[in-house]
């Protein structure tokens, strides 16, 4: 039995084997688990509807239908064993993709309802088989690891680019959403298919070159540097080639265009890969060169009427599909990103306009494209996305109307000029210097015009100074410009204040504020650790004390005697307060000690200040202390460990005494010499040690061993 929720690539199953029915275990994906069944290859229905051929087709198709129905009914593991290891199944599926009738192919489905029903059954069963093959997870119980699934489908060629292209042609109509999920899962789980698609595209482009070569047209994009053969000039044209060869050529072109369109319509993610190979320009060039010759050959040559109608229908179908391919590529590589508002929207606009400009050389293709997908709709989309870039485009509508009326006439040069203006407007990014240069060049010729009016004209005409001057002189300005004042001045832009002037920071106006200070003390600025400094030097730096020394030295000036000399200026007397003498000084109370015998109040004692002399003595002591650097010994940064242990023991003993703890008496288990007997205290100490020694290094091993032995865990 298979285990639930195990991927198929890791699953193993047990099955009976051999005549005796012995069981063996195999991986779920193993060749021996494949059922022996031969799948027939597919053959298309008969075209003429002959009864014998119809009966033969029905019998052959019935076997294929029953085999595919049996395959779809298999469980998950059996289905994948059959798909991976049964080569006849892959041949059957490949034959259907190759020979199944396409949309324009003649078939006998309409002649017999039984044939049509059988074809529908096979068509549905083949699609269901491919759909199941592209699914790596059918349910929570039945799934394959995504990485292993990618290797299985890629290494066993269950899917490749030709198969995927055929699947899109056969099943894209009516199953586009389901088919898109199927192909998306294939490319997501195995990104190598993107590389295969990239390598396949040159072969697809080569198909167009082969058709041109068969028609006798030399393509400019082939880039073939090989020398021409001697009979190269004898190649047939479309009008001169044999009938069968021309029919095959038209069929080849129709099948190629239909396949590419179906693939891009079903899986638009591949458009970016086609864009990398410049596929759009190659397609439009092929359309312009090959389609007119083929149409001319089919019209002028005398073919069988049914064959001629079939060839004309295929050419018309190819023309339509080529135009639709171009629209798909433009839609998904340019228009869709613009509509979604992608980041690089300007680059997508440039790509769109460059493609339209490249179409100008292909007049027939451009006319047919515009008939099926009007370019005005795309231009309208651009106007909505970039209204400031296209004020002059389609304003009157006359140019585009003339273009529609004269698709192959002389209006194409005007349309080319229009697209060139659009491209110029889309990519025009002028610097301030370039804009000033344009303004000065126009004002030199037309000095009466204001700068504001000239700027409006430049914006209107894509910053083309020649076009602006020409329209102003010939009075052909647009109505929006005619309403403006020609002397209009240039609008003044209010300059925003600088960020530095409006900033607010906690470090504003400090000594390192470089935005507000012109000079900085660079001695205060250094990178990394300051050179020449150390912790010891920092601790012994007494510069701040030296700064205070001069302040307190003033207190040691005590003048006992004042020398009096003849000083006519009197400055020396004023220095010692000689001008304060008063002859009327009252010395009545000089001998009395005022307040000497009073009792001092408590507040008075607390609030009494030191005298100046006391201050002086205090700070002199401080200075003397710091000056004695040589005499002061270094403090004991690391104290004696013995002293620390004694202090810790004292603290421990004090704490135990407070808690009422009495330490046990010192034990003595050594005792005296053997043969002389031991005291009772030594015997008790030895017994106490034997009973309590499991509390030490053994970590209760004896107690736990006794416990296990009592419970029967350890045999006695």
Automatic annotation (TrEMBL):
Residues 654-716 are annotated as: Disordered. InterPro entries: ASCC2 (IPR052586), ASCC2_CUE (IPR041800), CUE (IPR003892), UBA-like_sf (IPR009060). GO terms for biological process: regulation of DNA-templated transcription. It comes from the Eukaryota. Residues 683-693 have a biased composition (Basic and acidic residues). One of its GO terms (molecular function) is ubiquitin binding. This is Activating signal cointegrator 1 complex subunit 2.
């Amino acid at each position: 039995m298979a285990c639930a929720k195990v991927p198929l690539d890791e699953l193993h199953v047990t099955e009976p084997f051999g005549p005796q029915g012995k069981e063996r275990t195999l991986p779920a994906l193993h060749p021996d688990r494949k059922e022996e069944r031969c799948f027939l290859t597919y053959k298309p229905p008969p075209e003429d509807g002959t009864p014998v051929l119809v009966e033969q087709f029905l019998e052959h198709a019935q076997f294929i239908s029953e085999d595919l129905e049996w395959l779809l009914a298999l469980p998950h593991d059996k289905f994948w064993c059959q798909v991976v290891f049964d080569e006849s199944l892959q041949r059957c599926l490949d034959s259907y993709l190759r020979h199944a009738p396409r949309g324009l192919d003649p078939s006998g489905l309409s002649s017999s309802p039984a044939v049509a029903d059988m074809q529908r059954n096979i068509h549905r069963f083949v699609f269901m088989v491919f759909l199941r093959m592209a699914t790596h997870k059918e349910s929570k119980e039945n799934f394959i690891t995504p990485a292993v699934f990618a290797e299985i489908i890629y290494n066993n060629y269950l899917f490749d680019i030709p198969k995927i292209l055929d699947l899109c042609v056969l099943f894209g109509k009516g199953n586009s959403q389901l088919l898109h999920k199927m192909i998306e899962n294939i490319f997501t789980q195995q990104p190598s298919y993107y590389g295969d698609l990239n390598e396949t595209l040159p072969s697809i482009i080569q198909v167009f070159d082969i058709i041109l070569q068969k028609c006798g047209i030399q393509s400019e994009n082939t880039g073939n540097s090989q020398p021409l053969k001697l009979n190269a000039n004898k190649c047939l044209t479309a009008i001169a080639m044999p009938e069968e060869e021309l029919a095959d050529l038209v069929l080849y072109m129709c099948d190629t265009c239909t396949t590419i369109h179906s693939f891009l319509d079903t899986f638009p993610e591949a458009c970016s890969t086609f864009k990398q190979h410049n596929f759009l320009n190659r397609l439009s060039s092929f359309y312009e060169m090959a389609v007119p010759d083929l149409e001319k050959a089919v019209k002028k040559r005398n073919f069988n009427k049914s064959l001629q109608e079939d060839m004309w229908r295929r050419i018309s179908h190819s023309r339509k599909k080529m135009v639709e391919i171009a629209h798909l590529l433009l839609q998904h590589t340019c228009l869709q990103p613009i509509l979604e508002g992608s980041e690089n929207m300007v680059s997508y606009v440039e790509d769109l306009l460059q493609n339209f400009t490249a179409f100008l050389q292909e007049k027939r293709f451009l006319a047919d494209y515009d008939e099926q997908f009007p370019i005005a709709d795309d231009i309208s989309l651009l106007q909505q996305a970039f209204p400031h870039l296209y004020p002059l485009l389609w304003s009157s509508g006359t140019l585009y109307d003339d273009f529609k009326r004269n698709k192959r006439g002389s209006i194409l040069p005007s349309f080319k000029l229009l697209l060139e203006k659009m491209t110029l407007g889309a990519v025009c990014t002028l610097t301030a210097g370039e804009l000033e240069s344009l303004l000065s060049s126009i004002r030199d010729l037309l000095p009466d015009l204001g700068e504001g009016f000239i700027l409006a004209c430049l914006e209107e005409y894509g910053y083309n100074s020649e076009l602006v001057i020409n329209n102003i002189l010939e009075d052909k300005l647009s109505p929006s410009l005619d309403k403006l004042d020609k002397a209009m001045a240039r609008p003044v832009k209010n300059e925003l204040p600088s960020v530095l002037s409006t900033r607010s920071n906690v470090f504003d106006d400090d000594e390192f504020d470089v935005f507000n200070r012109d000079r900085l003390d660079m001695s205060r600025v250094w990178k990394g650790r300051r050179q020449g400094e150390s912790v010891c030097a920092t601790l012994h730096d007494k510069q701040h004390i030296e700064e205070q020394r001069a302040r307190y030295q003033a207190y040691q000036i005590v003048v006992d005697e004042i020398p009096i000399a003849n000083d006519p200026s009197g400055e020396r007397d004023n220095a010692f307060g000689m001008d304060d003498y008063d002859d009327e000084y009252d010395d009545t109370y000089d001998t009395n000690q005022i307040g000497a015998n009073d009792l001092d109040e408590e507040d008075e004692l607390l609030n009494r200040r030191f005298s100046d002399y006391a201050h002086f003595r205090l700070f002199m002591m401080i200075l003397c202390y710091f000056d004695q650097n040589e005499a002061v010994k270094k403090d004991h940064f690391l104290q004696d460990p013995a002293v620390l242990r004694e202090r810790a023991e004292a603290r421990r003993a004090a704490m135990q005494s407070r808690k009422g703890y009495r330490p046990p008496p010192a034990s003595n288990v050594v005792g005296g010499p053997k043969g002389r007997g031991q005291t009772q205290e030594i015997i008790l100490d030895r017994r106490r040690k034997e009973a309590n020694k499991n509390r030490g290094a053994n970590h209760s091993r004896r107690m736990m061993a006794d416990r296990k032995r009592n419970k029967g865990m350890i045999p006695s």
